[in-house]
């Protein structure tokens, strides 16, 4: 793990601790919103349930709007916590604008390096972290948050896995919701803006496919 990755991991846990200690009621509100009023342990179990909690914490820290001025918990943490080092503030400034997006595995090299195509924002990335990319094969799609740390792209830790057969359905759902965002929120809105403000869409889609398996074949 590189230096920036290590600093990011420590900061993330520190922010989670800060939120739990100072904003417990907000966590409950965000949790209900993220799961659309459902209880994840009623339809998820094992690794999937654990992944669901990881995804929630990632979204809570990076994307959830704590106040009417669109402040996130990263913003609040930087503005409230005393004694942060310059390198910590710099890293938080660097990553706070990141977004969740949808990726397709374009290829898997012999050394397990994976090339990803961002299906929503159009970029391509090469990932070498075998721990996070283990088991992925060409054609797989998933939503995640990519960060550029130590000069290389890496996954933040969250993941919303979908089968390759769901690709068209997932893209259609996101494009429909993005269209509503442009019509009803801001006509100048870009896809990146939408993803930053409504990143929970990936959890809603992931949850819908689990709760309504018939949708997988639509």
Description:
- Strand 4 (141-149) and strand 5 form a beta hairpin.
- The chain has helices at 3-22, 24-34, 46-62, 73-80, 86-95, 130-133, 167-184, 191-197, 201-211; strands spanning 100-108, 114-118, 124-127, 141-149, 152-155, 160-162.
- The chain has 3 domains: 3-95, no CATH class; 100-162, Beta Barrel (OB fold (Dihydrolipoamide Acetyltransferase, E2P)); 166-217, no CATH class.
- It is built from 9 helices and 6 strands.
Low-confidence stretches: none
User: How many DSSP E strands?
Assistant: 6
Q: H/E series, N to C?
A: HHHHHEEEHEEEHHH
Give the N-to-C terminal Cα separation.
Answer: 41 Å
Count of discrete structural domains: 3
Instruction: Return the structural class.
Output: alpha+beta
Q: Hey, roughly how much beta strand do the residues contain?
A: 15-25%
Average pLDDT for all residues: 91
Biggest sheet: strands, sense, closure?
6 strands, antiparallel
**Which of globular, elongated, flat, extended, rod-shaped describes the shape?**
globular
Rg, Cα atoms, Å:
17 Å
Q: Please give the share of residues in helix.
A: 40-55%
Total helical segments = 9
What features would you highlight for this structure?
alpha+beta; 9 helices; 3 domains; 218 residues; OB fold (Dihydrolipoamide Acetyltransferase, E2P); 6 strands; 49% helix
